[in-house]
């Protein structure tokens, strides 16, 4: 996709989704502790953290797979309760997991409309309207700038990046308000990853769908995201705009293993250093060394 100027997110954009004071335990294991996140209309939010930090649990609560032990979810200003993924989807929340949930033996267009197929009647018989689904799938993929050999191709013939793009396109077709992407760049090559990043950047440019992006590559965070939430040991310990921090500072904070208060102090010190024209990394380093 060609690079275009990115429109900054409107500071007055309304919150489309909030998760307030979410806590979740599984027996003696505490997965989340008083986690709160806010997602604005058209925003791309990066959810980062080490394995076991609680990212998947938070996403599964938002997607209706798990219910929180405490806390609330607010969608478009109204408190909601999701007891199943179907209820979450009914409120405009679509999630694309790492396994993509695509069927390799089916064509791209059949996968696009899996579970919501179009039908027609011929001589009283209810048949799949393959032509309609094929045309709609091609038009939708073209609109998103997704390039694949043919919508008639079976999914197992596509590259990893193309499969990921088809999974994202399928979710977008249902006109979600929130799109959750769980490690969409995992196991993709540089070129394939760039194509998926281009798709996310296109969504960000349009500012019609809000995106939560779970990713480990911090360079990609700063390439396509507006804001970062760093999840550590079940807590959100950093909430920062990508325009107010740097990749180096984020890496230092992630590696520090510090608690919420220390990380907040480190981030504040880094911000002061940036305002004074000094690299913020030094401030974080001093905190880590106990100076």
**Roughly what percent helix?**
25-40%
How many distinct folded domains? 2
Show unreliable segments. 278-291
CATH architecture of the largest domain: 3-Layer(aba) Sandwich
The largest sheet, given as strand count, sense and whether it forms a barrel, is: 6 strands, mixed
CATH level 1 class label of the largest domain: Alpha Beta
Mean pLDDT metric: 84
Strand order of the largest sheet: 6-9-10-3-11-12
Q: Determine the CATH superfamily of the largest domain.
A: P-loop containing nucleotide triphosphate hydrolases
Count of helix runs: 10
Structural class: alpha/beta
CATH fold title of the largest domain: Rossmann fold
**Helix-strand sequence:** EEEHEEHEHEEHHEHEHEEHHH
| Measured distance between first and last alpha carbons | 47 Å
Question: What would the principal axes of the Cα set say about the shape?
Answer: globular
Using only CA atoms, what is the Rg? 21 Å
Number of strands: 12
The fraction of residues assigned to DSSP E strands is 25-35%
Explain briefly what this protein structure is.
This protein has 291 residues and is an alpha/beta fold. The chain contains ten helices and twelve strands. The strands form three sheets. The chain has a six-stranded mixed β-sheet, sandwiched between helices.
């Amino acid at each position: 996709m060609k690079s275009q100027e990115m429109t900054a997110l409107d500071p007055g954009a309304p919150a489309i989704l909030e998760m307030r004071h979410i806590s979740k335990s599984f027996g003696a294991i505490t997965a989340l502790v008083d986690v709160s996140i806010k997602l604005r209309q058209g925003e791309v939010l990066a959810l980062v953290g080490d394995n076991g930090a609680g990212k998947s649990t938070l996403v599964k609560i938002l997607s209706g797979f798990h219910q929180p032990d405490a806390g609330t979810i607010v969608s478009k200003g109204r408190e909601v309760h999701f007891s199943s993924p179907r209820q979450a989807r009914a409120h405009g929340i679509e999630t694309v997991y790492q396994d993509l949930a695509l069927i390799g033996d089916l064509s791209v267009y059949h996968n696009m409309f899996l579970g919501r197929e179009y039908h027609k009647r011929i001589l009283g018989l209810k048949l799949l309207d393959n032509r309609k689904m094929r045309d709609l799938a091609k038009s939708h993929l073209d609109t998103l700038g997704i390039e694949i050999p043919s919508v008639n191709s079976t999914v197992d013939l596509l590259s990893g990046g193309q499969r990921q793009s088809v999974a994202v396109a399928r979710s977008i077709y249902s006109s979600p308000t929130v799109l959750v992407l769980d490690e969409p760049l995992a196991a993709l090559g540089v070129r394939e990853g760039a194509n998926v990043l281009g798709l996310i950047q296109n969504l960000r440019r349009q500012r019609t769908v809000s995106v939560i992006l779970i990713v480990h590559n911090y360079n990609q965070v700063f390439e396509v995201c507006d804001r970062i939430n760093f999840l550590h040991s079940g807590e959100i310990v950093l909430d920062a705009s990508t325009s107010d921090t740097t990749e180096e500072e984020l890496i230092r904070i992630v590696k520090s293993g510090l608690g919420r208060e220390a990380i907040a102090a480190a981030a504040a010190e880094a911000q002061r250093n940036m305002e004074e024209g000094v690299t913020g990394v030094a401030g974080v380093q001093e905190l880590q060394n106990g100076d």
